[in-house]
Amino acid sequence: QVCLNSELWHACAGPLVSLPPVGSRVVYFPQGHSEQVAASTNKEIDSLPSYPSLPPQLVCQLHNVTMHADVETDEVYAQMTLQPLSLLEQKDPYLPAELGMPSKQPTNYFCKTLTASDTSTHGGFSVPRRAAEKVFPPLDFAQQPPAQELIAKDLHGNEWKFRHIFRGQPKRHLLTTGWSVFVSAKRLVAGDSVLFIWNDNNQLLLGIRRANRPQTVMPSSVLSSDSMHIGLLAAAAHAAATNSRFTIFYNPRASPSEFVIPLAKYVKAVYHTRVSVGMRFRMLFETEESSVRRYMGTITGISDIDPVHWPNSHWRSVKVGWDESTAGQRQPRVSLWEIEPLTTFPMYPTSFPFRLKRPWPTGLPSLHGIPYEFEQK
Amino acid sequence: QVCLNSELWHACAGPLVSLPPVGSRVVYFPQGHSEQVAASTNKEIDSLPSYPSLPPQLVCQLHNVTMHADVETDEVYAQMTLQPLSLLEQKDPYLPAELGMPSKQPTNYFCKTLTASDTSTHGGFSVPRRAAEKVFPPLDFAQQPPAQELIAKDLHGNEWKFRHIFRGQPKRHLLTTGWSVFVSAKRLVAGDSVLFIWNDNNQLLLGIRRANRPQTVMPSSVLSSDSMHIGLLAAAAHAAATNSRFTIFYNPRASPSEFVIPLAKYVKAVYHTRVSVGMRFRMLFETEESSVRRYMGTITGISDIDPVHWPNSHWRSVKVGWDESTAGQRQPRVSLWEIEPLTTFPMYPTSFPFRLKRPWPTGLPSLHGIPYEFEQK
DNA sequence: TTGTCTCCCAGTGGGAGACAA
DNA sequence: TTGTCTCCCACTGGGAGACAA
């Protein structure tokens, strides 16, 4: 089920999620993929076979990205077709598209977390005043009370009709007829969020974001979670060995971290940024209201998260402590490309030079011709 | 979610499904497992890597079998832990338990396919007269009208209360209060079946069997179907290479055929039964009313279903034609252990001799010391 | 014997303003 | 400004027998 509307997909995915452009080069992390599967199947990984032939990261070309929404839950996910690249291809100069990072959050939208009243069987949905005025078409205030019919398209292209009325004492915007049908069809409960977008084609789009209900995730009865983990590793290993394409699903709201990273972002973070224990950093997080804020922390260590299976991996290689102890939320380990160190020693001008293809003496670390002595192992 | 009630599980699984006993030796077919995943993900297999190290069948010890029911759909499935056996262990004599084939269908039960009236919002469930008299506790006909409260446990152990009443002109058995709650909670529609069992502990059990709605099967957004297929193969190959345990799910109503077969049944069908093109055979199928009937057919060929990936596999090696052309239902290819050839040349007495362990010159084909010239390659 | 219909009326729940946080 | 309550009454749908396949 392909989701046709990119704006709506990105709005549901959240402000921090951006999909690398088709054709660009990315770095794929089997460990991160594995974390997503573990989160989705709600099952820890027991003992898995090692795949010594599979490196902890794979530089790939991203051949295809399609945006989808789960038919049952409307959960957004992306399907990506990746092809591991030869060392030579990894060292090709960047295309312009690989450096720009488009963030496609729509501007004319609002997101509201549903209250108990919004989801109760008595009555409809209370629309925040600014939201209604900004996102919905203007009401005809000559009518008494002012009202109109709204038609909104969900992620699957299905249309939902709502009566939008401005009434009550004091006056407020409400969605009445049609609202409860939507709530029960999507099985929304208080705490879930809905998201209305008014797009450039004067269409109203309607997405949902469910509250985190980690217990709801059901173990698949199709394949054991062990086989799923092995499958992901074997599929990547096979693709790496044969330089053939493989397909992955990225579920931005289930996955603890993105595991397909633009090559440029990875290289900049790993080879062009110096970090050390004790260094202060900032990191972006999504707020409840679907905007972003920065949290501060201190680097407390740099080491392999899994020295046995994945030695010398940069995945979550940075141990951190967070300033605000409200945590438990924020992971104790992050990857270099997720953080902004507060004191950096820029080793190159911030605007990357476009370089001509030429042979390099060795693999990825020399991607930009950085002298070895400046690189971190 | 473990299903506690074995009778109910078997009743829901159907009369043809029998799980091999724990501790027994079984033959596992990756191809059959693959078919189940294909059926569950509703996706054909594209191109998969070959696993030359993985034979088309694996003789395993069945260490554990647990019966489950999907939390969302109540679909029954079994989890099995298998361990590939060494050649020597494969040749051990049979344990008594490996020869008996227990079929655990309960006797005191009924299964009814729901009508439009049964699932409509107006009124309850019409209980077939014989079914009510056989399975439900007797009503007190002194009351007018006779009525009682029934409490039935579903696959998850949840209890459902129903008012059972005998009324109307002409008189009939009905379930009223409580029925519609059950229908909407389980999201039953006309065409689905319900199944009531009165067990030996005087408990009423309640299972459901959904009508085949193959389009409903959603593609998982957790892992690509390719990775799932690779995962199943890689997990089996890894287990075979290291003689370690692996876990599979068997979904009797989703899977086209059983893919974990008792070793004795496999050996008897493959090495002790002679089949040839033109031979007539019978095969068991489940009827709409959850009983069994035999269909007749003729063997039209014997060949590998997939000579590239699985040469010399016995999985669906028999091409057949069916007498009743109502088919499209019945597969054009079956495996030897699924059919009863009508003219057999018994090569051994029907009761298997228990043999002592002793060394054999070669692998599985000599399992029972059958001279080579009698064996089919 | 049992599937569907219609009738009856109790209770659910949409839709309104009141009210208070 | 907006979350919750209560009130009102239309309509849904449980539960009964009628009726026909």
UniProtKB/TrEMBL annotation, chains A, B:
Keywords: Auxin signaling pathway, DNA-binding, Nucleus, Transcription, Transcription regulation. One of its GO terms (cellular component) is nucleus. CDD domains: B3_DNA (cd10017). It comes from Ensete ventricosum (Abyssinian banana). It is found in: Nucleus. It comes from the Eukaryota. This is Auxin response factor. Auxin response factors (ARFs) are transcriptional factors that bind specifically to the DNA sequence 5'-TGTCTC-3' found in the auxin-responsive promoter elements (AuxREs). The keyword Nucleus applies. Residues 110-212 form the TF-B3 domain. Gene3D superfamilies: 2.30.30.1040, DNA-binding pseudobarrel domain. One of its GO terms (molecular function) is DNA binding. Belongs to the ARF family. GO terms for biological process: auxin-activated signaling pathway; regulation of DNA-templated transcription. The keyword Zinc does not apply. InterPro entries: ARF_dom, ARF_plant, B3_DNA-bd, DNA-bd_pseudobarrel_sf. SMART domains: B3. Homodimers and heterodimers.
